Amino acid sequence: MTNGENAGTANSDEKLSNVKKISIGLQSPDRKVRKQAFLDLQGYLSNENAEFSNQDLRSIFVEIHIYVLNGLRDKVENVREQAIKFVNFLIIEKLPLNDYYLTYVLPVLVERIGTVELIEESEEIRLQILQLLDAIITKYSHTAQLVPFLNDCVTILAETVKDKYPTIKELSCRTVIKLAEALPRDFHKQAETLVKPVITCFYHQRYKVRVEAVYAVGEIVMHSSYKALEEAVTPLAEKLFDQIPAVRRAVAQVAARWLMEYRDRYSFFHKILPLLLTGLNDEVLETRMEAAKLWEQAGLQYQQENEKDFKDEIDYLIQPPKYYPDNVLRPNIGCRGLVKRNVLKIAPGIANELTSWQEDIRLRCAQLLCAVALHAESDITQNLQVLLVAMYSAARDDDHRVVSNIERASEIIGCFVKCDTWSELMVPLVEDGPHYGHLTVLKGLIRGSPREYFAPYVENICKVLSEDFICCSRKNKYQVELIECVKALAEKHDNGTEGEAGYCLFKISTSVFALKHADNAEKIRDSDVMDRLKDCLKLESVQELYDLYAGRLLRHVNRNPELWTIVSEEECLFLSLLSHVNEAFGRNLDVIGEILSLSLDTQCDAESRLKIFYVLAGVFENKEAVFGRAENRAEFLEKLVQDVFVPSLVWHAGATAEAIRTMAASCLRSALLPLDGVELFTAETLRPVRDKLLPLLTSLLEDASYRSRETAVDCLVLLKENCHRTGIWEIGDFVSVYPEVLKRLDDPTDRVRICALRNLPFILKNVPEIFKDLTYRSHHELIVDTLMIHFDDDDEAIQKLVKNALESMVEINKKELLNKIERHKPLLRNQKGCEEFLESLEGLRITEIK
């Protein structure tokens, strides 16, 4: 041995001796001494002046490893912590790569944190031990020395991912990925054992743990058999509903990697595709953009891998279909091909999950359906029956986002699937009695269908929807969707008023308006719907709609009007028509008169009659539009008065009968109102009406209801004016009417008194000439005496009305009027009023003399 070798050996022996001396402190009962010993060892081995060869370090490790590794088991936490730091320093920084060292270290790590039973109680120490393992894997990455310890690493990680400490879980997932990358050729041997432990992290409350777990599972599956993928797909799909965008983005990234890199991906495309396609409709823009980018890459790769299969499409089908949805970028050929070849396997799962009890699952499935329908295009036809059933149910979801996506999916399907195909599936269901889910889907299919192809089917669908049991519904959501169907059909209709479509759409709309639910007052605007119908039928105005179809619809509802109640669909529809027909009323007087005669019979439902009278009164207030161009209006009104008003004005006991009399009188008043330029009655038609009405109206003046008495006065005046205009106002009629009106001046209700006084001048105007003779002087005296009594009323308004009535007597018997006033004047308190009235009469006399 040379001197140099002797010197080197002596130097190594000295280093080893120094280390042994320091290591004695590791066995001390004093915790401070043990901790200080680790610090001294690290300080000695890191001394820059002392160079340690690999052999020196190996010899040192052999001598002290038992004591050092025992430090990992020390009862004192501070000592264990320092021991971990020293092991990390020794193994990672000082010792060279050699599986010899790991042979001693890893079993201790397994012992401390790799067993089911919790050995290391300190969370911080467990984390540091895991960090040590992570550092070892990093240092020994892609080396043969790490291979023998793969099982130990997996054993540790399988336990640490289940640790309660979130930071340990997070690091464990990252370490799993690092281990897979460190041993790419060997990791598959143990990978599957990590699937279940890592999946437990999917449900941790910290989102960073969930994100790392998703990435870890993605890596594990890449190195495992199909069993791992099948085990991971469902939990991974659940993370699509995670509230944190980063988690959903991680799922999309993992799915995209599987689509492009998983060795057996062709067998599992149907399981992987939904994970990425769902991300295309994510709420967060960044997630959608990244998912779209990854999906495009996957599609392009698939296209390249199957270039021969797509050759014709690549070469010839460059332009999108003629009626491709607006504002939608068509996916590339590979993306479409991927979905088309797997839609048979994907569709049943979507259909099943659309009816899930979990709201998030229903939402994501509805979004996924949109993406699948857009990619599959016409290839979704063979799955349509299964999907439609689920879509009907999902369209009734309480979450509007689910419904919105179902509507969108329906429009896409309508765009690509032939009309005869989906109509054969939908129409029979609708004919059996739809719910609003059916109508929601139908609306989407109609909207999506190209007008050119769908136009021939419009009339048939309109006929189905116009059936009474379909269009006459009081359900609020059902009504909204039915009207939306009408709007969609109107957009596709292009035959004007030809065929039955126009009438059917009119009937559906009118039925919904008539039975409209209270909640739909703002959702369904009658004018908007009618304007659309007018435009689609190429009419000038909405009134033309009623002119064309109101008569037919009135004849349709004319079914047993005598049996109607206020909830009868036919009555509601009839009243709705009456409120809107205007000019069309006059063109359908025959059917309207027949319905009114039957429905307002005294034996019919009282509430129903009351409601019809109310609407009819409103119609007569617009008489110019109703009767302006009508034929046979005189016969209609005569029949109406005789068959409806006369029986209804007959007194019957009870509050309901009283209300009907009042309402009938109000309606009669509207009917008797004159119409400028149009004579509603002739002498022949009015005479029998007069004979029957006068006794009834005079008896109504004694009715218990003040409204009836007030209305009766108005009706008598209007009847008198109509009779005078037609030349049949006779002295007997006048003499029987005016005393009854005078009696109302003593009515207990001021409104009736005022009404009587207001109308009395009209009664006294244009009296029959014979009434002015002296033979009727007693009548003149009765009128003046009665008025003079009320001329002394305290109310100035009454006094003024009485004065107007007295002025009407000037033309009848002025002399008697003056005499009576002179006689009554000393007895009245209203001296001023008498003087003013006499002065006005004197002025009148002077004017006459001149």
From TrEMBL:
GO terms for molecular function: dynein intermediate chain binding. SMART domains: TOG (SM01349). Residues 105-322 form the TOG domain. Transmembrane segments: none annotated. It comes from the Eukaryota. It holds the Pfam family HEAT_DAAF5. GO terms for cellular component: cytoplasm. GO terms for biological process: cilium movement; inner dynein arm assembly; outer dynein arm assembly. This is TOG domain-containing protein. It comes from Phyllotreta striolata (Striped flea beetle).
